[in-house]
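User: Hi! I'm working on a homework problem where we have to compare a predicted structure to a textbook description. Could you give me the structure for the chain below?
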Amino acid sequence: MTYDAVVVGSGPNGLAAATVLAQAGCSVLVLEGAQQPGGGARTAELTLAGFRHDVCSAIHPLGIASPLFRTLPLAQHGLAWIHAPAPLAHPFLDGRVALLERDLATTATQLGDDADAYADLLQPFLRRWHALLDDALAPLRFPHHPLLYARFGLAGLRSAESVMRTRFRTDAARALFGGIASHAFLPLSVRPTAAFGLMLALAAHAEGWPLARGGSQSIVQALIGHLATLGAKVETGTPVRSLAELPAAKIVMLDLTPRQLLTLAGDQLPPRYRRALERYRYGPAAFKVDWALAGPIPWRSPQCARAATLHLIGSSDEVLAASGAAWRAEHREYPLVLLAQPTLFDASRAPAGKHVAWAYCHVPHGSTVDMTARIEGQIERFAPGFRELILGRSVLPPAELERHNPNLVGGDINGGVQDLRQLFTRPVRRRVPYATPLKGVYLCSASTPPGGGVHGMCGYNAAKAALRGAGFP
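Assistant: Happy to help. Predicted structure tokens:
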């Protein structure tokens, strides 16, 4: 059977690309090498029977906000978003907690002397959140809302450290913002880390930081369910080892990073483009641990139980030090631990009365250092007695993350460094960054604009470019 389009990879971006192509009337085949679809959005019993853990992504601020996903009838295919009372908790060792609440005013008020500064920083953009987000998640082009985007750029193109030091006076506000910006996997002293902090904070206030009921796999299953109604086909357990193996199609979409494209395309790529791909930079890695627990995490501060996501590091000075450690090839004794506790809000993921927890820290690219004890030690500082609750654990160092999903090269969960050199021109500097020199072949992974995150917009943007290139209406 022949198809108009073949998509390699069933991560959220590959499925998003398939959706756009199918909606345009293309016949679509999605090929996935693993037995389970989803890429970075899979859920599995990693520890004990009955305990369901998210293999990679767990919390989805840009999933619920995605300009594509919010237009699709995913709820009809089983996707339900669950919101914790507070999106984020940032505890301190003295028992204080900075809570990022859905309500901007409530969050600002608890920041004391920085109440006005926090509200003034975010309020102008919160009023026009969807307009800002639609421009931010688009490929590099003249924005549809230039004045709004330019105003955001004045703040966002700074380093997070400069915003922390110049906009805020209290350690609580600085640490809260810095922890959020740390999701960039960049030292907070470099640009544009402020943009990551601003976008994720705005997402928390505008949409929340929800989790998907039953696990991240339900996002993928909903996308596949919708694709089925459009006539698209998804085949798992079908690894692709070269482009020559693919069925003939007008459009080939690759939810792959530059390294995989180099392998699949062989000598078909022009030397100049090949060299550009070989220069593509992958960033620091995640070291991830999942636990099956006998009970909820015993936080020193009960407020921590209001949040699905926690940043465990403490003061703003610790945040700044931790943000650059992986870039200095350091493994900190007390790393920044990003933790999710989904079963406080979604009991379907564990046996009655039991819980799961998910956490990772940043480590150097391809690190082989076992960070399990350090991650658990950091949690123990904020939740004495945590270790006593552990029934089982799953440890996924960078090499194991890459084994689960080859796109996570060296454990890099963002598809490549997202700094100014590589954020807008990933994977190479081209007028249409998704297009390769091979006719009809496009990249649509997180290694293309707008980068990492479960939002599907890399796939959406790439598919739109592919339709234009193939002459579809």
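For your comparison, note the following. The radius of gyration is 21 Å. The chain has a mean pLDDT of 96. Good luck with the assignment!
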